[in-house]
Amino acid sequence: MGNLSNLTELWLFSNQLVGEIPTELGNLSNLTYLDIERNRLGGVIPKELGNLSNLTELWLFSNRLSGEIPAALGNLSNLTTLVLWGNQLDGEIPTELGNLSNLAYLDLGDNQLSGRIPTALGNLSHLTTLALHSNQLSGRIPAALGNLSNLTTLSLRINQLDGEIPAELGKLSNLEVLRLEDNASLKGALPQSLTGLTDLTQFYFHNTGLCAPLDAAFQTWLQGIEETNGSNCGVELGLSVCDRTDAVRDAIVALVSVSNCSDVTLEHLSAINSLSLNDASLTELKADDFSDLTGLTTLSLTGNRLSSLPDGLFDDLTALTWLSLTVNQLSSIPSELFTLPNLTHLYLWGNQLDGEIPTELGTLSNLTDLDLGDNQLEGHIPTALGNLSNLTTLSLHSNQLSGRIPAALGNLSNLTTLALHNNQLSSRIPAALGNLSNLTTLSLWGNQLDGEIPTELGKLSNLEILWLNDNASLMGALPQSLSGLTKLTQFYFNNTGLCAPLDAAFQTWLQGITDHSGSNCSG
User: Fold this and answer.
1) Which strand (E) or helix (H) includes residue 256?
2) Burial (CB count <10 Å: 0-12, 13-18, 19+), residue 6
3) Which of 132, 187, 378, 386 lies 20 to 30 A from 259 at CA?
4) What is the CATH number of the domain that holds 201?
5) Is the sign of the CA dihedral 114, 115, 119, 120 positive or negative?
6) 119: helix, strand or coil
7) 242 and 229, same structural domain?
């Protein structure tokens, strides 16, 4: 059969065929339609089917196929229909299926697939049906599925999915069928954004930890759906608040103004936007202490005795913008912080952080304030911090950082404060710092910097504080360009090899600075 090079369609469905799919089918280069559904074929799906570049429809459902879905199927760029349900396929869904840009119908249901739903499936802009039900899929529903603007059916029932429903699903304006039931670890209030799904006729979310908000608008929308099954949110969800760490429980109860922790509802939790647990004598937290706080934007845990944080603590805090963990006993920067996409303020000073600064901090693109001062961090300052284009304050002082100051910090055009003092930084001050036109404070004292001061620092027209003192190997006359810093009120260059030029113009400028310390050059 593999020699039928002109064959364009092959229909073999419902013939009680046994054995395996021959790899030679991959030679049928003109094939556009392959239907072998409803047989008793076993073995694996041959990766050679990925050679069928003209194939538009592939129907292999209701067989006994096993093994993994071959990644090579992602090469079928003309494929519009892929139906593999009702087999014994296992392993993860290959991310390569996200390359099938023409795919309109994808059904992988009733198999034994595991792992996460690939974010890459969110690339399938023509998809109308996505059926992944009755597998063993786990993890969160990817927000990227909200990009599937043509989707009419989304079936994820009977899996092991967890977490909350991403608000992005509310963008699926053409959705008619949404099946989420029988995922016991899905939890939380359904997002308000779902009320935008005005075409929905079937919506099942029973046998999950999901619940429908009680507000009138959501309930009106829900009651307008022809077929639906699931629970409303209620006070029973508040019982979990009673099991949280005492200080967390008490703070939540006080914020929502109820008498007992058992009276707290999901609506109460999702409405909390700020939570302060400062100086609460906390030594540890539970993984679920902040669960369901989906509206929380500000969290302060300053002045406790936390030495570590449990995995999953921040899972529900996707709205968080401001986080303070200052003055605790943390020994490392929690990696889960890198999954908080909206974070703008991160304060970790005054802990016991050691090791190197993780380069992943450079992915928090919304950060405006980053303070890691007063710790025991070592190694080089990662150049990736130069990617934080919104940063206004960068404080890495009082650590054990070494090596050069990265020139990449000169990219931080919004920076107003750069505090790198009291480290072991060496070599020359990079001229690129002269690009920081909004800088008001530059603190480099107490390092091992050397060489002359770059003239480019004279371009920092907004600078008010410049501390260069206690860098014994800095040397030479201060550049004349510094006299352009007319806003300077504090300038220290004592305990260095630097000196101030004796010419009248420079001396007049220097004497006009309210607070300065350093030597003049010798005549």
Assistant:
1) helix 246-256
2) exposed
3) 187
4) 3.80.10.10
5) negative
6) helix
7) no
